[in-house]
Hints:
A hairpin with a 2-residue loop joins strand 3 (57-62) and strand 4. The protein is built from 5 helices and 10 strands. The chain starts with a helix and ends in a 29-residue tail after the last strand. The protein has helices at 4-17, 73-84, 128-140, 165-170, 180-191; strands at residues 32-34, 37-42, 57-62, 65-70, 88-90, 96-100, 104-108, 116-120, 145-151, 196-201. By secondary structure, the chain is of the alpha/beta class. Strands 2-4-3-7 form a 4-stranded mixed sheet, covered by helices on one side. A 3-stranded antiparallel sheet has the order 1-6-5, with no helix packed on it. A 3-stranded parallel sheet has the order 8-9-10, covered by helices on one side.
Amino acid sequence: NTSPLLQTTIDRFNSILFNPTRKTTQILEQSRAAIKSIDIHMRSADETLQFGIDESYRLEIDSPTIEIHSETVYGTIWALETLSQLIQYDSEPLPRWVIPYCPITITDEPHYAWRGFLVDTSRHFLSVPHLKRFIAALSMNKFNVMHWHVVDSQSFPLEIPNHPELTAHGAYDSKATYSPSQVTELVTFARERGVRVVMEIDTPGHTHSWTKAFPDTLACPDGVRDGSDN
């Protein structure tokens, strides 16, 4: 099946799997399989990343071939992630990549369709490179959701093209904002690693940062009622 995301995934894992800087543990020669090829069998080319998508895979490792069987590219991503934690570089007697304790068959699927981690950039701004490192760490541990608590009472860093006043007055700093193109960049980066970005924008509560641009949006923008008001 033709899948652009599969090719992107293969290219990314090539540099991860076949990296000569990998540490090699001392293991018995007879328990190691030297790897010459990886065959991927994926049934569907559908790249839609949504809640409940099939993320299962089967990883069969035996010298000299590795076989990956999955329903979708996201199962393949998790299979390659597992493989990256098993493969080792061995320089003796000749440079090669090996996997200990073969043959190995791993059949895996998630118990939970939502495996999320919340990151709050409204109270503590995080740069795009920092968020990318966070997403990469989620993928390494097979989390599939970054719950992005992007705005709150403390700040409004999300740029809204029709209302630039929100970030102009509500962000911590003019540089502490996320443009639409940066959001797209993060969503694409996450999708390539099997992670959905679910953005949370609080309303009607937790909207004090909005009042710095639009004070009439709240009855009590300062959070304190007049003592005569019952």
